[in-house]
């Protein structure tokens, strides 16, 4: 664990009764990253976030946020953290503005003199200015989600924790959230986004971690995660055995597939055009040839086994 | 959401203080929210309706020699509407409204999910409890004042107002009588402080506000029932409702402060015990709502 990380945990564990919901988590979120926290529903993402924010006490292990221990140092850490946890929540009988004002008064580091203007700015930022005076009771799910994000932006934050931020948003809203996250990251804010939607993470994150049944199965930069198995040469041909022999001569360990062969490409391997030429010279009838980097999705399914089913 | 080139949150504004403020803003917000709720006003209106109903009933029937407290004296002096209304409200109506407000404190936030956002703001769990308790206490003050003032008001409209003969036989002027009325309202507020602490503690036990509200109100009734059982007389001085109707001493000349003092001490004990229980429970609680 290093203090330079925005979030660092070691052996973080939460048991409810005897069941470990989060089990020995070693998470490291670099400062300045947009960090995707991936996992099927029920894999322990939200419980982890609750521990990071001091809502839930860990059963074992340690969590550091912005270099300080949680939950002990919450009073000095949390004012620097904006969060959306397990969906937005507001008093239905208050307006959007009144709800944000109420939340802001709870933060003793938020100056009262600028409160009204900061609330207006946050509402403007999520496109809710027109509905600011309406009771939250009358908000749609998407509007509540936007208001929840506005609540995380009331002051400048060093770290934003967004739990499923695009839940309930239409495609337009989803794109707006992506843009918002990018602009915040460009301003130096570390953004920690949890999601069960891979595509979402792939589009906005620089780093990611993958959870499965309470355990961390992989973490790193997106390139590292994708490259877990490296780029692969995929050749479509009826002369598979011949192709394996030719590729073996070039130092590639190819294997048969349904309609040809496949070989992992090490960094020093010949270029695709050289491989093509060699195969043709070797009388292999090449119908197609491609270099594929494994997608995050393949990697995800590989790591979590069953994709996105809920695990108990 | 505005485009990605929007300036960071209010670049020109001071967005963070260098040191924590004392945190009065949260108390202000709590009181503002409490007293802006329709429910709060509905309960205060219901409390105000009690003296109005009493006064109208006495006015129509021309008074009666039977009834609680000072009912028979109302026709002579409208100020007694207020005294009577406080006697009528103390055993049930006031504890019921306190149950709603105090039982809702933490559980209500939990049921809306806003508790987690207050905790991570961070409001500070201790500070949040203190602010919530202050809110319930503020409602006690509002409730007692509403009954007393509505009583005095409607009494003045429907009946003559004049010097009040105290329980000890001396007569005091209207000004002094109003002062005594406020003293009784203060006694009522003090009486309710223990119940507020009980409600606050019960509210930390659940995410279902109605449960905490009902439990608080039920305890108020149970305490008064136990206070009626002579077999439990040893227990009586320890029941939080024991002095609830003991404000007669404030209508003597000179004023006897014994009941006021004993009551205050008893309520302080309840606040300390249930406050400590609430703190112990809430500061170690996993917020899962």
Mean pLDDT of chain A: 88
Low-pLDDT runs of 5+ residues of chain B are 2-12
Count of helical regions of chain B: 9
Specify the structural class of chain B: mainly alpha
Bulk shape of chain A: elongated
- Order of adjacent strands in the largest pleated sheet of chain B: 1-2
SS element count, helices of chain A: 11
Helix amount of chain B: 55-70%
Question: What is the end-to-end distance of chain A?
Answer: 30 Å
Write the CATH architecture name of the largest domain in chain A.
3-Layer(aba) Sandwich
Give a count of the beta strands of chain B, DSSP E runs of length 2 or more.
2
Rg of chain A to the nearest angstrom? Answer: 24 Å
- Model regions low in confidence, pLDDT < 50 over at least 5 residues of chain A: 308-312
- State the major sheet of chain A: 6 strands, mixed
Helix content of chain A: 25-40%
Can you describe this structure?
The complex is a heterodimer of chains A (312) and B (289). Chain A is of the alpha/beta class and 312 residues long. Chain A folds into two domains: 223 residues, 3-Layer(aba) Sandwich (Rossmann fold); 62 residues, 2-Layer Sandwich (Alpha-Beta Plaits). Helix content of chain A is 33%, strand content 26%. In chain A, strands 7-8-9-4-10-11 form a six-stranded mixed beta sheet, sandwiched between helices. In chain A, strands 1, 2, 3, 5 and 6 form a five-stranded antiparallel beta sheet that branches. In chain A, helix 3 packs across helix 4 and helix 4 crosses helix 5. The longest helix of chain A is centred in the middle third of the chain and has 16 residues. The C terminus of chain A is likely disordered. In chain B, strand 1 and strand 2 form a beta hairpin. Helix content of chain B is 64%, strand content 1%. In chain B, strands 1-2 form a two-stranded antiparallel sheet. Chain B has one domain. The longest helix of chain B has 34 residues. The N terminus of chain B is likely disordered. Chain B is globular and about 60 Å long. The interface between A and B is large, with 61 and 44 residues.
